[in-house]
Amino acid sequence: MFRTSLATAIALAVFLPSSPVHAQDASDADALDRVVVTGTRTAVTVDDSLAPVEVIDRAEIERAQARSLADLLRGRAGVNLVNQGGLGKLTTVFMRGTESDHTLFLVDGVRVGSSTSGLTSIQDLPVEMIDRIEIVRGPRSSLYGSEAIGGVIQVFTRHPQSGVRTRFKLGGGSHNLREASAGLDVGFDRAWFGADYAHQSSDGFQSCTGAVSPVFAGCFMENPDPDNDGYENNSVSLRAGIKPVDALTLDANVLRAEGRNEYDAEPAFGLPDLSRTLQQVVGGKAKYELARSTWTLSAGRNVDRSVQSRDNDPLGSFESKRDGASLQGDIRVAEGHLVTAGFDWARDAAVILDAFDPFSNVVRSRNNRAVFLQYQGDLGRNDVQASVRHDDNEQFGGHSTGSLAWGIDLSHGLRVSASAGNAFKAPTFNELYFPFYGNPDLSPETSDSFDIGLGQRHDAWHWQLDAYQTRIDDLIVYDSTLFMANNLEQARIRGAELTAGTTLGGWDITGAASWLDPRNRSRTNDSENYDKLLPRRAQKTARLDVDRAFGDWRIGATVIGEGRRFDDVANTLEVAGFSTLDLRAEWRVADAWTLQARASNVFDHDYETSAYYAQAGREYGLTLRYSPD
């Protein structure tokens, strides 16, 4: 089934653009010219971006009827997701075959993620608060510093609309899913304010299949508890801004999401089975625009907290804080020539809230200061982007990174691009110090990457093919011979990504297919696993989305296929490939009122993305939305 679905998705993605098509409507044409900011830290259109970039806007989020950020990212070009048991459970992202902590996540420009584990709790970021998502594939350390080896994913929360607008959502579904949200926007010429609240909860299902000796994996249980593992999330988003004069804009935003997550664990080991989580992002920005330059001062804080317990007895709690500030100037030195320069400051801190403190006798906070410089030039048919950055990390010293990208517009809408860049990643506090795992002698990971792309855009269709290679030195993994984290000598990752979209006979069709070859190339300290595949990355993935409107009705489907992957460095524990089909429909009942229905995993396939953690079978959902245009 997977091979059939994958072949179908690839075939449609490749051949549909060359088929007779109908012209796109105005909204689709506008979408092709939408502005992105993550790839360059400045505003450029998707067409002009020299980095492989994808945008998921609010219209697509609602059309897809996604329940989570993970639902929106599944099957996207270059993205591998690993989930441990459905809605709200731990979800990790592997971008272009790099590690799960090699993707930089931003929320409204604020760096997010745990400074202890290095992971971002994307399962706790509420989808109802999201206005759009920008996915940039490839290294971006020359603009953002540590972590951006595989790419950057930035989430932008809802922004206030003009006038007074309200919205409302009420939904339910399988596993006793309950969803409710409401929002208000008040916008004037010189001031604006917005607020949203969202609730999501589910009884969940029994996801852990368990395993003991000799594998000793999953939730460490031979016979897992037969109960369902529920999830609850309550979130609030606030944003406000003022424009006191034409040249000055002041913005502030807050996102707070509190979660309650149940999971299986063996009582004999004294492990927790309940976690109460907090994700909080606070940010502010001042932008001053002059005739030939724009200056932006921004600051923010991310708090990531987890309090764990069993039978209401506290067993441990972790909290990390990430503070950051930036001053950036964008100077138009001539027509088509933009120079960006800036200074970044960041501080990561681990805060332990109980007696068990693995970081009590070691470094638990560190500062990072950086300067960066970027040039973007429009040279006729050629575009050039070059950037350099120097980071001074309080714990690991100086690291210089750079990137260079070039593109040329050919006839018939063809565009060729090429880029090269390096990146680095400082070890997390867990990798350095956590008991029975940490190694204080770890070195930062470094990488070198190059990318070559060929694409074509017309009014009614577009396609893009990118091929890349990344070499990572001192890759940090768990070394079973040392029983701690260790630097591998080297890893080599090669891959290719194809994306395409068109409108055919009234159907909006988009597709993506990715091929990945991530290899362990360490001959010294992991020679027995030389040339083995890096774990948890599917070598083949594909996604196909098809939607069509019929008056007040709209129907759609999503097919996702993923090939096999291995869950261990020795490639002995295989996770089988799979494919799923999701169906959706919506009916515009009246002005601003829409009734939506969905069926996920229609064929009720049993599959896993992480060994010993089952994914949901067939699920249904029904949603009522009120959202004025």
UniProtKB/TrEMBL annotation:
Signal peptide (UniProt feature, chain positions): 1-23
Pfam families per record: Plug, TonB_dep_Rec_b-barrel
Annotated spans, Disordered: 304-323
Subcellular location: Cell outer membrane
Record carries keyword Transport: yes
Main location: membrane
Residue intervals of the TonB-dependent receptor plug domain: 47-152
Domain of life: Bacteria
Stretches assigned to the TonB-dependent receptor-like beta-barrel domain: 265-602
Keywords assigned: Cell outer membrane, Ion transport, Membrane, Porin, Receptor, Signal, TonB box, Transmembrane, Transmembrane beta strand, Transport
Record membrane topology: Multi-pass membrane protein
PANTHER family reported for this sequence: COLICIN I RECEPTOR-RELATED (PTHR30069:SF53), TONB-DEPENDENT OUTER MEMBRANE RECEPTOR (PTHR30069)
Family assignment from sequence similarity: Belongs to the TonB-dependent receptor family.
UniProt xrefs under NCBIfam families: TonB-B12
Annotated protein name in UniProt: TonB-dependent vitamin B12 receptor
